[in-house]
Design brief:
Elements: E1 4-8, H1 27-35, E2 38-42, H2 53-60, E3 64-66, H3 77-90, E4 95-100, H4 102-111, E5 118-124, H5 129-132, E6 147-151, H6 160-170, E7 173-176, H7 193-263, E8 274-276, E9 279-283
Parallel strand pairs: 2-3, 2-4, 4-5, 5-6, 6-7
Antiparallel strand pairs: 1-9, 8-9
């Protein structure tokens, strides 16, 4: 016989690609990022004097900046909110807000436009938006950053029912100080360790949120890499299966060709086929 034809199923092994895995950020790294934050002190009408809790807080929280207004006696929300926005835009890194009275309204209005920059907001004794005719200019949906509203049951500038209403709209935690008036220096709120503790509470919440977001991003990256590896591995398996399928098709083709030759009058002998390990050796 003049020779033989060798048919062999080909196998293609996909290369394994290893990528360097970025380590998950540690809690210490998250803490350092939050510790480099800025706290905007946003007073209300007539600003906050030397005996006010905001002034006390400003001296104790590193990275604090007081937002100044062009006219402390004119509660014009667009102007006040614009001053807060200006500070938000010029600051790098996480930002916390510590606002009082009408300053709380300006803080919420400005922060809602730059929510991605805000890590938390402490709104103490907000002024009544209805009284100042600015309710329609304030957000009425949940704020996307941790928020705490502190109110009292005898605040002359905002009823507790109204404070509860706005806290619910903003998705804020509501703290009731009882009969604490307007929660200012006249009501006895100079040094206020509880207020400092609330700022620290917001910092911890921001730290947890940042850690959760980065962990979720890290897990997503790992899942994507795993899917890519599985896709490459599955492709290699399919290619190997295709080779084996071609081998089986070749065997059927040879048998069919022999039947056609016999039907045409040819004398065809059964070949001595050596089929092993995916190889088919057929003499012609």
């Amino acid at each position: 016989m003049p020779g033989a034809v060798l048919l062999k199923a080909s196998a293609f092994a996909a290369p394994r690609i290893f990528r360097a895995q970025r380590p998950r950020p540690t809690r210490a790294q998250h803490s350092r990022m939050i510790s480099m934050s800025t706290t905007l002190i946003i007073p209300g009408l007539r600003s906050s004097g030397p005996t006010h809790w905001q002034t006390w807080l400003e001296r104790r929280v590193s990275g604090s900046i007081r937002v100044s207004q062009s006219n402390w006696n004119d509660p014009h929300l667009p102007d006040w909110a614009a001053r807060v926005r200006r500070e938000i835009v010029r600051i790098d890194g996480p930002i916390f807000l510590a606002a009082h009275s009408f300053g709380a309204l300006a803080a919420v209005q400005a922060a809602s436009d730059h929510a991605e920059r805000i890590s938390g907001a402490l709104l103490v004794a907000p002024a009544d938006p209805e009284h100042f005719g600015v309710a329609e200019f304030l957000p009425t949906t949940r704020l996307t950053f941790p928020t705490i509203v502190v109110a009292s049951v005898n605040d002359p500038w905002l009823s507790f029912a109204s404070a509860s209403h706005w806290a619910r709209l903003w998705g804020a935690d509501l703290i009731n100080l009882g009969e604490a008036g307007h929660i200012n220096s006249e009501a006895g709120f100079g040094p206020w360790p509880e207020g400092l503790a609330l700022i620290e509470r917001l910092r911890r919440a921001a730290e947890f949120r940042l850690a959760s977001e980065r962990l979720a991003a890290w897990n997503l990256s790992q899942a994507r890499q795993s899917r890519e590896q599985q896709t490459r591995h599955g492709g290699a398996m399919r290619r190997q299966g295709f080779g084996r399928q071609r081998s089986m098709l070749d065997q059927r083709d040879i048998g069919g060709a022999a039947a056609l030759l016999r039907a045409a009058g040819w004398s065809v002998q059964r070949p001595t086929a050596n089929i092993a390990g995916g190889k088919i050796t057929t003499p012609l």
